[in-house]
Amino acid sequence: MRVEEAIKEKFKCTKCSGTGCRIKEVAMTGTGLSKMFDIQHNHFLFVSCENCGYVEVYNPNILEGKTRGQLGTVLDILFG
What we know:
Layout: H1 3-10, E1 21-28, H2 33-36, E2 42-49, E3 55-58, H3 60-64, H4 68-79
Antiparallel strand pairs: 1-2, 2-3
Helix pairs in contact: 1-4
């Protein structure tokens, strides 16, 4: 299961308890040479609640670095 699919399946907004979300992947530069040459090697997932618009930001490299069982545990901690 992809990280995005797992987040959508388990999403529950911490502000309004809504269960619908939209996910956008955003790439950003870092500092130093990557900023000067506009090398966007930092990727993040922005998860927006469809009910109230509250946004949470996740690092997919950390979530994907876990095994399938551990990923479920991380998502359970994040989304209750």
